[in-house]
Amino acid sequence: MEKKIDMKGKRPLIIAGPCSAETEEQTLATCAELAASGAVDVIRAGVWKPRTRPGSFEGVGERGLAWLAKAKAQTGLPFGVEVANSKHVFTALSYGADMVWIGARTTVNPFSVQEIADALKGSDVKVFIKNPMSPDVDLWGGAVERIVNAGIPRENIGLIHRGFAHVGAGNGYRNPPMWHQAIEMRRRYPDIVLICDPSHICGCRDYLAEISQKAADLFYDGLIVESHIDPDRALSDAAQQLKPADLKTMLDGIKWRQPSADSAEFKQALAECRREIDDIDAEVFSLLSRRMGVADRIGRIKKDNNVTILQGGRWNEIIEKTVTQSESLNLSPDFIRAILEAVHLESIAHQNRIMNE
Ligand code: PEP
Ligand code: MN
User: Fold this and answer.
1) Which of 234, 347, 232, 337 is nearest to 296 (CA)?
2) What is the pTM for the complete model shown?
3) HSE (CB half, 13 Å, CA atoms) of 201?
4) How many CB atoms lie within 10 A of CB 111?
């Protein structure tokens, strides 16, 4: 029997499949194993692949949709495909796609998103929107609004958090998650399904489980994970794909905890901690406000003596002194650095105002 995609009714919603449909055999064999695992609700595969450089595997095109339609007929599982323009949308719908997703490289471009939104008008297909390459919640939200404005019901729309482009090593991630971008999207669109794509965040198999568990603990609604019958021979994203059996093992290991519990003790213990946190936060901000008052005084002293705001040696000294305390404070060096940088920027802004008043 053909299954429909249940967006909110089932948590977790699990979408899985190869990065790319490569051959009919690979597509059918992967989908058959995924369906047999019983752990997957929707099949995914790309047939038009947005690649950074020309000449790498750019997808098999429309042929792949015929294979996906066949996989759907054989397994009963609905399927989804990436679309990047109106022609992709019309072609995908003509093969019975149940879901389409807008890729990260497309979400950045409002012209493309609008073209896709126009092509989707009147359709009851599910539409997932990946975060844009750049950490920009307004741009991600803008894409949601274009799809909503095209008349797609909100319950048919989903968000995919797949991490963000970065400069440098990216802490070992292919696309660092920057969780707060997704948390802010959830705050802005609380009724819209949010799932995590650990595959494109990690870029390798090593911490797929860890990222997936974190998404589950941040109350995401599900996952989209890449799975290939023979990952090492995959034509795209080989390093991050899992064999269907390994995907099943990983999914079985994830705990999908509930957002709340009914017990009175739980509620009381949580409320107490939250009151304490609110008090501490208020104290932290009042201290920061005092600190900026001192920055204003420093700004005046520097101005009177015609001295620059930034004095490299001093900034270095603050960073080094505080980072060496990271262990005794039980705070990570990255966190200490991030806080100090934010404080320093605000302090410079204060001094700048004084200098130029
Ligand atoms: C994909 O899902 O295969 C893909 C191309 O992802 P992204 O748009 O996140 O790079
Ligand atoms: Mn991929």
Assistant:
1) 347
2) 0.89
3) 27
4) 9
Express each pLDDT in 113-162 by its tens digit.
Answer: 999 999 999 999 999 999 999 999 999 999 999 999 999 999 999 999 99
C-alpha to C-alpha distance for 93 and 75, rounded to whole angstroms? 19
Residue indicated by tokens 């009851």: 124
**Distance from C-alpha of 181 to C-alpha of 163, rounded to nearest angstrom:** 9
Q: Please state, in angstroms and rounded to a whole number, the distance separating the CA atoms of residues 305 and 297.
A: 13
Identity at 45, one-letter amino acid code: A
Report CA(148)–ligand 2 centroid distance (Å): 26
What the block records as the tokens of 167 is 């400069």
Q: Ligand 1: does its nearest atom lie under 6 Å from the Cβ of 161?
A: no
In ligand 1, the atom with minimum distance to the C-alpha of 103 is 8
From the CA of 46, give the closest atom in ligand 1: 3
DSSP one-letter string for 142-173: HHHHHHHHTT--GGGEEEEE-----SS-GGG-
